[in-house]
């Protein structure tokens, strides 16, 4: 006669397949061992695995630009952006991540009902990375025609018309849908990627000495602008990543060198697909006279047609399409020159 312990062991062996089957049905399918935000991870999983409408089934589809507004204040320049977007509704989408701890009010118009589920953000913390990833994931899920994803802030303004921006990004790079079942992502991502910075080593160790190892060796660490324009392939790379994210989400110990949002995106894309990125940003920022990590803040007295023309000019072969950082008081003088200067290409 079999002893009781043997019977218990046999029962466990027999029930194990059933337990495994039930666990697969009942437990979430997308989990990471150090997950700080299970709801974020579920969103990211859906964004990279969800089967969207196949583009070949759509009638005369045109690619769209997803504009991702990252803000912790009201969108002061909404009237200028509204003028920028007018007449092009079929070529863009808008997504807004507003810090829920602030009283951000919807400006209405094209911005109506474009707020996504958000969480608090704080400077010198990985929360800004998380916010950008939520915006990318939401835009990926929302519309398969979103092929470029432009991250901007409440201080950003357009320097040219929407038509110019659209043609500039997609110029000569759309392939015929008769030959391809999807848009051929030959167009690059516009993200600043710099390997030389006088404070690069201090920035690398901002989270702690050698904390980035082994996933991010110092020779692979990069710096760049927080604001970028990514193609759909690279948007998925960012949303899908956990390997580097688990390093960059570690709190900083040196706040003077802590700018994770300026490091994570250029480092990740440099390691994943450097050849698919231009290495340049299309958002102009003036670092002359910067203070406490903030760039120059333009005032109403500085706004002029000549300033707009100067801000468009780049040292590279690319033109700047957007610029920051403008004080809220700049809205009136910018609106005064919108039709005759900014949107007259």
Automatic annotation (TrEMBL):
Its main location: membrane. Residues 1-21 form the signal peptide. InterPro entries: BC10-like, Glyco_trans_14. GO terms for molecular function: glycosyltransferase activity. It is found in: Membrane. Keywords: Glycoprotein, Glycosyltransferase, Membrane, Signal, Transferase. It is a single-pass type II membrane protein. Transmembrane segments: none annotated. PANTHER family: CORE-2/I-BRANCHING BETA-1,6-N-ACETYLGLUCOSAMINYLTRANSFERASE FAMILY PROTEIN-RELATED, CORE-2_I-BRANCHING BETA-1,6-N-ACETYLGLUCOSAMINYLTRANSFERASE FAMILY PROTEIN. This is Glycosyl transferase, family 14. It comes from Medicago truncatula.
């Amino acid at each position: 006669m079999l002893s009781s312990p043997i019977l218990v062991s046999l029962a466990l062996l027999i029930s194990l397949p059933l337990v495994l089957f039930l666990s697969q049905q009942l437990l979430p399918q997308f989990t990471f061992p150090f997950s700080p935000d299970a709801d974020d991870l579920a969103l990211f999983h859906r964004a990279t695995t969800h089967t969207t409408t196949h583009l070949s089934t759509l009638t005369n589809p045109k690619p769209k630009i997803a504009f991702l507004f990252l803000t912790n204040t009201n969108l002061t320049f909404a009237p200028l952006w509204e003028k920028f977007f007018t007449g092009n509704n079929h070529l863009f989408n808008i997504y807004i991540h507003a810090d829920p701890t602030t009283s951000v009010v919807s400006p209405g118009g094209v911005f109506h009902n474009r707020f996504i589920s958000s969480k608090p953000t704080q400077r010198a913390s990985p929360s800004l990375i998380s916010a950008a990833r939520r915006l990318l994931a939401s835009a990926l899920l929302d519309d398969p025609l979103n092929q470029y994803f432009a991250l901007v802030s409440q201080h950003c303004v357009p320097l040219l018309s929407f038509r110019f921006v659209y043609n500039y990004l997609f110029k000569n790079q759309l392939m015929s849908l008769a030959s391809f079942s999807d848009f051929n992502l030959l167009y690059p991502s516009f993200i600043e990627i710099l390997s030389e910075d006088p404070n690069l080593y201090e920035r690398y160790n901002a989270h702690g000495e050698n904390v980035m190892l082994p996933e991010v060796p110092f020779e692979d660490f990069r710096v760049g602008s927080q604001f970028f324009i990514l193609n759909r392939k690279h948007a998925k790379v960012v949303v899908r990543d956990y390997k580097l994210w688990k390093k960059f989400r570690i709190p900083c110990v040196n706040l003077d060198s802590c700018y994770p949002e300026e490091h994570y995106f250029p480092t990740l894309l440099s390691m994943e697909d450097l050849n698919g990125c231009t290495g340049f940003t299309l958002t102009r920022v003036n670092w002359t006279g910067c203070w406490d990590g903030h760039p120059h803040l333009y005032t109403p007295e500085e706004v002029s047609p000549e300033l707009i023309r100067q801000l468009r000019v780049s040292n590279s072969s690319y033109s700047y399409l957007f610029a920051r950082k403008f004080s809220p008081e700049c809205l009136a003088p910018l609106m005064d020159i919108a039709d005759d200067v900014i949107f007259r290409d």
